[in-house]
Structures are given as C-alpha cells and as structure tokens.
Specification:
This protein is α+β, with helices and mostly antiparallel strands. It has helices spanning about 10-20, 85-90, 110-130, 135-145, 150-155, 160-170, 175-180, 185-190, 190-200, 205-210, 215-225, 230-240; strands spanning about 5-10, 25-30, 40-50, 60-70, 75-80. It has 12 helices and 5 strands. Strand 4 and strand 5 (about 75-80) form a beta hairpin. The protein is elongated and about 80 Å long.
Amino acid sequence: MPRLRVHYAQASQLVDEYDSQMSKGGLLVRGDAPAGLALFDAVELEIGAAFAPLDRAPVVVAGQVVQMIAGVGVAVVFDPAPLAGAVAAARTGAPPRGGLAEVEPPPRGGAAEMEPARAGAEKAAKIQQALHGNRDDRARILRDTNRLLHPYVLRNPQLGLDEVLAIAKMSTMSPEILGQIAAEPDWAQRPDIAIALVRNPKTPTPAAVRLLDHVSAADIRQLAKDTRTRPAVQQAARKKLFGPG
C-alpha cells in the first residue's frame, strides 16, 4: 500500500494543521504524488515530527485519496482519532527535539500557501461526508453550491432509494449526476425514479428517452399529451402509444 509521509518541525505547525484540516477528517499532503497513485486509492498516512512523542513513533493511519492537485499535493481523508495524544502534547508547547537542520522546513510562503491547503482539506472533508456520512450529511452535501461534490453522494453505500428518488426530482441537480442515476439499472428500472428523471428538465434528453422503457403506461399517455414535456420525449412517448407512423 502506498505511504504518504508528513513531517512537522514545530509543534505549532501540527496544531495548526490539526485544527484547520485533520480534525475535519482530511489533510492535503503537499508535494508530488507517488508514481502510480490514483484517485480513491487506499493509502497509509505517516505523520511524524521533531518533538515527542512523534519523534520516537510516528502515527500511521489508513486513508483514502479523494483529490489530486497537480503541483500542490494529494488530499487524503482519514480518522484523526489516533493523533489525539500527539496533538494534545503539541499544544503544551514542548520545544522541538532533535536537530532542526535534519527535519523538513516549514512551508514556504506562510499564510498565502496555507489557504490552498485548508481549502483542499475542507473539500476532502466534504467528500468524506458524501462518501461515508449519514443521511443529514448527504443532504448537506447536495445543498452545497459546489456541484462537483454531488456525485460522491451516489457512491455512499447507505444511500436509500427514497433519497435517489428525491435527487431525481431536483431541478437544481446537474445533468451529470442525473445521467449517472439514469445509467444505474437498479435505480433507472424503478418506474418512480424513471418518471422523475424523465420529467426533470435537467436529465439529458437521450437518457430521458431511454427511460421511457421503464415508465408506466399511464405516465406514457400523460407525457404524450402534456405540452410541458420536452418535444423529443413527447415524440418518443407518442411512438410508444401509436407506433412510428
């Protein structure tokens, strides 16, 4: 399993990144990604420091890659609980141990470089919520203005069919996420989800036409005569009722 390493020269650095990133369940590991590393790969995250107790025994946690930013770093989500003791010790302000010349220097650029890192960590935390969070977490992510987060909700194993139906009805969703729902047979073949997608103006038209195969006869008749139906969908519905003539 690939291992990403982070080393802190000062206790204040660890505390700052824990408060701004790790406590939210993520960390942007700055630097080039290891060769072959891919999005959503499982990784080990090793966190060490020049002060106790991390100078003697770095903390190693299991994580998952949720974002790769060229020229910036790799965003990883993980459970920060194993770091609690080390962070508590760092808050006491214990002086660094070992030669500072032998450890990594602090990030260059100060606060200017920390902002992308914090933004990356916040996004990583939201992706973690989308992938593994509860119903409230999923609803919160779907309300987020960053639409790039929305498709991660569909990968959450706890996602219920009622939630999929609700998403299918939302005209605020992007065509991409509606297209993903339409492409999943377990969802698209359910008449209630199929008709919700067909009626949603954001659903890509080719997908909406294909979904007519899973819509009830009563809904087909309604689509065929409803002037609010998209022309291509209405025409396809009429063909199902009356044939190609």
